[in-house]
């Protein structure tokens, strides 16, 4: 399994909490699309020997592109790269871009077979607080239309926003469950530097998110979705059996991926790469056929730390046999020793040879994983 991610760095307006790379100025859109195609052409050989079976358009807001622009971009990707017949092709979309003609065009003219809709909330006041470009009526209408044309649908929901009542959160969960949506990605609100939310909090115009509320709402989500038959296959991701995201699963299972576009990251199992996070800078380099890409070689210790961070977040857990085969038997010893205090605190447990987060550990898993990291070990 391996994948290609294409970053579309434009949005209609800036959500207050967002620190992804995007611009609300779409003047450079045509140049950027040309640059994406050039990057794909220049990096073709990097995927030799990979079994490509997922192509993901993320952002930003990929649904800002017209059907014609998507036909051109995806057509180039399929022409240049050797994808499996049954490749999962996901388009991230915002509700305000969705209408019947757009969806019919996608189905008829592209290989998009999965949509990930940025719903975030069904409550008007929460959507306004986040500065989302859509309202709750558009969210519901978008879900209804997507289910008609592309039933393989995922929705994003955010919890832990200041002032969000548990009742409103439960109603949102029950609504997506009731609509039969097969995949849900859900994140606690976090405050990132260089966002409007960060500056509102600094200036006292918004309260900080409350950790207790976020934890309570996380477990409301976990329990209600378990009851409704969803697998909690990764901390922020829930799917009905057979509906896990291939793109996300590849990432958490340490499979290689190629990231195309400004700010996109790549990983080839030995190195981690990242593209320049600027639309004009990205376009300029590619116009001259240069890759705006930097690589960092990963040591065994880096790869082990990354493996811990990603696998502890999943239902598959950290596999001792895999640790031994990939990193060496000494890493098994380190892991067993460092995990002991967390097992005593009932935050982690051994399921045979698999180390997993307990129910209590799940909400804290990123912190636990970084406490297990090995530092300054010689390769
Ligand atoms: S639409 Fe998505 S990428 Fe764009 S600002 Fe909002 S959260 Fe960020």
From TrEMBL:
InterPro entries: Coproporphyrinogen-III_oxidase, Elp3/MiaA/NifB-like_rSAM, HemN_C, HemW-like, rSAM, rSAM_horseshoe, rSAM_sf. The keyword Nucleotidyltransferase does not apply. GO terms for cellular component: cytoplasm. Residues 1-231 form the Radical SAM core domain. It is found in: Cytoplasm. Keywords: 4Fe-4S, Chaperone, Cytoplasm, Heme, Iron, Iron-sulfur, Metal-binding, S-adenosyl-L-methionine. Coiled coil: none annotated. GO terms for biological process: porphyrin-containing compound biosynthetic process. It comes from the Bacteria. CDD domains: Radical_SAM. GO terms for molecular function: 4 iron, 4 sulfur cluster binding; coproporphyrinogen oxidase activity; metal ion binding. Belongs to the anaerobic coproporphyrinogen-III oxidase family. HemW subfamily. Probably acts as a heme chaperone, transferring heme to an unknown acceptor. Binds one molecule of heme per monomer, possibly covalently. Binds 1 [4Fe-4S] cluster. The cluster is coordinated with 3 cysteines and an exchangeable S-adenosyl-L-methionine. This is Heme chaperone HemW. It comes from Aureicoccus marinus.
């Amino acid at each position: 399994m391996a994948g290609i991610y294409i970053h579309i760095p434009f949005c209609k307006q800036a959500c207050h909490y967002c620190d992804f790379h995007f611009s609300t100025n779409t003047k450079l859109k045509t140049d950027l699309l040309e640059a994406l195609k050039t990057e794909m052409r220049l990096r073709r050989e990097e995927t030799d020997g990979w079994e490509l079976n997922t192509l993901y358009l993320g952002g930003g807001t990929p649904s800002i592109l017209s059907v014609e622009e998507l036909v051109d971009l995806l057509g180039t990707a399929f022409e240049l790269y050797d994808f499996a017949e049954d490749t999962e092709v996901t388009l991230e979309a915002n509700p305000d871009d969705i209408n019947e003609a757009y969806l019919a065009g996608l189905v008829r003219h592209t290989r998009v077979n999965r949509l990930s809709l940025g719903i975030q909330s069904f409550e008007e006041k929460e959507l306004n607080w986040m500065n989302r470009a859509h309202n709750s009526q558009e969210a519901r209408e978008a879900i209804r239309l997507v289910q008609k044309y592309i039933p393989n649908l995922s929705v994003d929901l955010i919890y832990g926003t200041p002032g969000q009542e548990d009742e409103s959160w439960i109603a949102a969960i029950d609504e997506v469950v009731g609509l039969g949506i097969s995949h849900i990605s859900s994140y606690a609100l976090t405050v990132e530097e260089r966002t409007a939310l960060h500056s509102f909090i600094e200036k006292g115009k918004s309260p900080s998110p409350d950790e207790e509320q976020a934890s309570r709402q996380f477990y409301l989500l976990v329990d209600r979705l378990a009851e409704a038959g969803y697998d909690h296959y990764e901390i922020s991701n829930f799917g009905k059996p057979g509906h896990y995201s291939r793109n996300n699963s590849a990432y958490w299972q340490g499979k290689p991926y190629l990231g195309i576009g400004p700010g996109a990251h790549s990983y080839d199992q030995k190195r981690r790469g990242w593209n320049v996070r600027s639309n004009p800078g990205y376009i300029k380099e590619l116009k001259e056929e240069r890759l705006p890409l930097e690589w960092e070689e990963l040591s065994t210790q880096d790869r082990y730390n990354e493996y811990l961070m990603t696998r502890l977040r999943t239902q598959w857990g950290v596999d001792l046999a895999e640790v031994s085969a990939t990193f060496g038997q000494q890493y098994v010893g380190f892991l067993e020793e460092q995990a002991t205090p967390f097992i005593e605190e009932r935050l982690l447990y051994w399921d045979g040879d698999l180390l997993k987060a307990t129910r209590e550990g799940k909400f804290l898993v990123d912190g636990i994983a970084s406490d297990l990291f090995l530092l300054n070990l010689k390769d």
